[in-house]
Amino acid sequence: MTADLDPQGAGSLLVRAMRGEPVAHRPVWFMRQAGRSLPEYRALRSAGGLLELCHDPALAAEVTMQPVRRHGVDAAILFSDIVFPLHAIGVGVEIRPGVGPVLDEPVRTRADLERLRPFEPDADAPELAEAVRLVRADLSVPVIGFAGAPFTVASYLVEGGPSKMQARTRALMLADPALWTALCERLADHAVTSLTAQVQAGAAAVQLFDSWAGSLSAERYEAQVLPVMRTLVERLRPLGVPVVSFALGGGHLLELLAAAGADVVGVDWRTPLSQARTRLGASVALQGNLDPAACLAGWEVARASADAVLADAPEHGHVFNLGHGVFPETDPGILTALVAHVHERTASPPIPAGAHVS
């Protein structure tokens, strides 16, 4: 299907699978497929920093398209970063290699909150939508837009950088619930305006990344994150595209991710897809959940692990993906082979179990 005939990929394998409809074969894409493991990306990245690359729509579009050309995946996810809106509105943030986003001044008081003005994509970062348009003009597969979920972006702001435990963040939630809610609502506004710009430029689906939500108990998430997430998803509904919600380490939060209104729940490698289906029912599509480490263990292990994921996945309403992002040291050839293997194994009519697929 071409971009001209289907301007936002609404009839694509990806979107149909996200809607729970039958598809000719299982769609495949990989979180962090754009960059990291690709030598062509590293060649571009050597010329500048990640956020600087995001500000160049031609380069951002090129990086977005690289894994589609190399691997034959069924979707392109826009190359950007969850802190890009913060950077675009003048928040002092840099992405340090091997560390992640680091902020000059953490946000921990009401005065700090006032530094976070609204994100206006047309004025602050028109290159965001332009990169989507460039990709749509050059590729026939749909584009996935993305944004950071409020909890994870807030945790970077409060901690001042990456944190495994989010101790300061959880302390703020407990000590000043009103400030916490105000912070999350402001970040939800950023996510909505960013994703709206991406969809209006041609993105066919959007994903909310909540990398650190797994540090929360289900009770804390329900009380202090779910209300904002539910409102955020409701505000995205008029866009008419599927919404994916992914929380790393969030196996205990799956019902809450679905309760926020997500059409698709991403599942990491620690929760079996069959268990997720039992817990969520057939009305929510699933995405995942090959252990990224399997891609480091050689082709035979990767193939067997992929087959185990497919055997555990529902027949309809499933998008094949990793249970988290591609490791930088992953052999790109393994990813290319996985895409072809999943396509062949799930083709209609399905290839019998035990049959050899090269």
Fraction of residues in β-strands: 5-15%
Unreliable parts: 1-5
Strand order of the main beta sheet, please? 1-4-5-6-7-8-9
Q: What is the straight-line distance between the termini?
A: 26 Å
Structural account:
The relative contact order is 0.14. This protein has helices at residues 13-18, 39-45, 50-54, 57-71, 84-88, 110-113, 121-124, 126-138, 150-159, 167-175, 177-200, 218-224, 226-236, 254-259, 273-280, 299-312, 332-345, and strands at residues 76-77, 93-96, 100-103, 143-148, 205-210, 243-247, 264-266, 285-290, 318-322. It has one domain (13-345): TIM Barrel (Alpha-Beta Barrel). It starts with 12 loop residues before the first helix and ends in a 13-residue tail after the last helix. It is globular, with a radius of gyration of 19 Å. β6 (243-247), α14 and β7 (264-266) form a beta-alpha-beta unit. The protein contains 17 helices and nine strands. The chain has a seven-stranded parallel β-sheet with strand order 1-4-5-6-7-8-9.
